[in-house]
Amino acid sequence: MARMLSTSSHNAWVNLLTSWGAACALVLAATASAAAPASSRPTPVPGPAAAAPSAPSTVLAPAPALAPASKADTMAQRLLACTACHGPEGRATASGYQPRIAGKPAGYLFQQLRHFRDGRRSHAAMATLLAPLPDAYLREISEHFASQDLPYPAPGQRPPPPGEARRAEALVKNGDPARKLPACAACHGALLTGMQPAVPGLLGLPRDYLIGQIGAWRTGLRHATEPDCMAGISRSLTPDDIGALASWLSAQAVPVPAHPAPAPTRPLPQDCGSVRP
Ligand code: HEC
Ligand code: HEC
């Protein structure tokens, strides 16, 4: 039920923001082409942003793109279109679904932006915003959010009952050798704050978001770079495991500081395309 409610209010948000997001996409695209050297400017593709009825006819017109950046034109201002959903400075809101993006490993954020732009992850408003942006600009956006070092709020979720907590903690710390499931912590870091350059932390994320992501891997809606280790891991988890993991993870306090662990010196327990150089 909680999932249904948050999904419908989330959809209302998306509807509200899709038309406005189209206008923001123009600003992002204009600043992207202004930032890129002439030789690497993408050919503007008339995507959904251009087709939106509210979009002005001067879609991707060169004038604003070529105007010199004013002092006030900071990266943070250009990314207001993102922080409307992801919270001020990308630190997430109380909506119950939008994930925090501040402080995540830059390599991870970059790959996710490419996945949304190129259809390997699915979110209509984000796809519209990102469609015209070249990789170089996505990298800049990722570095901007990765460099944000902001405190996390106390967890909003109550811990699950002891049985569920034990099941979740065992999977997180030891995995389940009988199912060839490695410990989540082996890749997501001993403190679960992620690992450089491309494994995200698992704490400070809404319960519904965690369930949504594991579910999306199981149904093939979310893809990572091949070999997609999380697809196999998600399919080995039972619905009870997923419920327990999401409840337990979302109830943990985020350690201070919450920096991702350094890159591993030994190979991860499974090959993940996301972390290959
Ligand atoms: C309309 C609301 C909305 C807007 C606008 C938006 N996002 Fe998102 N974003 C979401 C939602 C919802 C998700 C989770 C989608 C899913 O279920 O996979 C998400 C996911 C992400 C993720 C993946 C996070 C993770 O932990 O895997 C990144 C990175 C991201 N957004 C960055 C951005 C950037 C950068 C912008 C601006 C260009 C932006 N978003 C604009 C709603 C939004
Ligand atoms: C072999 C390494 C490995 C193991 C073990 C592993 N993960 Fe992951 N996980 C990853 C990688 C790599 C990513 C980033 C994938 C991508 O690029 O989209 C990821 C991403 C995720 C995400 C998406 C987070 C976000 O912000 O969207 C969730 C949720 C997740 N893992 C949960 C788990 C859980 C729960 C376990 C234990 C049951 C686990 N993972 C075990 C490597 C691993």
Please describe what this structure looks like.
The protein has 277 residues and is mostly helical. It has 2 domains: 11-68 and 75-146, Orthogonal Bundle (Cytochrome Bc1 Complex, Chain D, domain 2), CATH 1.10.760; 162-275, Cytochrome Bc1 Complex, Chain D, domain 2 (Orthogonal Bundle), CATH 1.10.760.10. It is built from 13 helices and no strands. It has helices spanning 2-35, 48-51, 62-66, 75-78, 80-86, 106-118, 124-130, 135-146, 162-174, 184-188, 207-219, 229-236, 239-251. α11 (207-219) packs across α12 (229-236) and α11 packs antiparallel against α13 (239-251). The termini are far apart. Residues 1-23 and 34-69 have low confidence and may be disordered. One heme C binds at residues 99, 111, 171, 182, 184, 186-188, 198-200, 202, 205, 210, 213-214, 224, 229-230, 233, 245, 268-270, 272, 274-275.
Short summary:
The protein contains 13 helices and no strands.
What's the layout of helices and strands?
Elements: H1 2-35, H2 48-51, H3 62-66, H4 75-78, H5 80-86, H6 106-118, H7 124-130, H8 135-146, H9 162-174, H10 184-188, H11 207-219, H12 229-236, H13 239-251
Helix pairs in contact: 1-7, 6-7, 6-8, 9-13, 11-12, 11-13
The structure holds heme C (2 copies).
One heme C is lined by residues 13-14, 17, 21, 79, 81-82, 84-86, 97-99, 101, 109, 112-113, 121, 123, 125-126, 129-130, 141, 200, 212.
